[in-house]
């Protein structure tokens, strides 16, 4: 399979993303994301990783401070992921990181404006520096507004 296959079954409230290296599935209940599951695809040159689920993926979520991004951060945190959250507002980011830590998640907030290339580079670098890798990126930028600094 090349690229990413996205399917959404509105009747079941399931969004699935499947690619060459793994899959991600989100299930919605009403307007909230109720569960998230992930897995890693079998590696062609090694049987050691074959059909093994990712133990505790590192997930980066942009636009995580409100709405769908925030719900996604909590869904991944409840599922045991290590979560890097990003947004343009320091106070809201620090508050959300605290809530996620209180819920038992390993998390890091990195202020970034995804319209700025340098911010994006710093965001990825900080995620990898903190957790050693990056497994999943949920790129859900927030609404358009003036550039906050």
Give a verbal description of the structure:
The protein has 149 residues and is an alpha/beta fold. The chain has 2 domains: 1-54; 56-149, Rossmann fold (3-Layer(aba) Sandwich), CATH 3.40.50.720. 27% of the residues lie in helices and 33% in strands. It contains 3 helices and 8 strands; from the N terminus they run βββββαβαβαβ. The chain has helices spanning 67-78, 90-102, 117-131, and strands at residues 4-9, 14-19, 22-29, 32-40, 58-62, 82-87, 107-111, 136-139. The strands form 2 sheets. The protein has a 4-stranded antiparallel sheet. It has a 4-stranded parallel sheet with strand order 7-6-5-8, with helices on both faces. Strand 6 (82-87), helix 2 (90-102) and strand 7 form a beta-alpha-beta unit. The longest helix has 15 residues, at 117-131. The termini are far apart.
SSE blueprint and pairings:
Blueprint: E1 4-9, E2 14-19, E3 22-29, E4 32-40, E5 58-62, H1 67-78, E6 82-87, H2 90-102, E7 107-111, H3 117-131, E8 136-139
Parallel strand pairs: 5-6, 5-8, 6-7
Antiparallel strand pairs: 1-2, 2-3, 3-4
Q: What key phrases describe this protein's structure?
A:
149 residues; alpha/beta; 2 domains; 4-stranded antiparallel beta sheet; 4-stranded parallel beta sheet; 3 helices; 8 strands
């Amino acid at each position: 399979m090349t690229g990413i296959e996205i399917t959404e079954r509105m009747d079941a409230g399931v969004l699935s993303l499947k690619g060459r290296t793994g899959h991600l599935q989100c299930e919605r209940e009403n307007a909230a994301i109720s569960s998230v599951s992930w897995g890693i695809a079998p590696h062609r040159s090694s049987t050691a990783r074959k059909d093994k689920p990712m133990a505790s993926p590192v997930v980066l979520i942009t636009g995580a401070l409100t709405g769908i991004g925030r719900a996604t951060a909590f869904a991944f945190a409840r599922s045991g992921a290590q979560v890097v959250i990003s947004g343009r507002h320091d106070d809201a980011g620090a508050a959300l990181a605290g809530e996620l830590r209180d819920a038992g998640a390993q998390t890091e907030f990195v202020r970034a404006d995804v319209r700025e290339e340098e911010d994006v580079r710093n965001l990825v670098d900080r995620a990898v520096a903190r957790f050693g890798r990056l497994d999943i990126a949920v790129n859900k930028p927030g609404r358009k507004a003036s550039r906050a600094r």
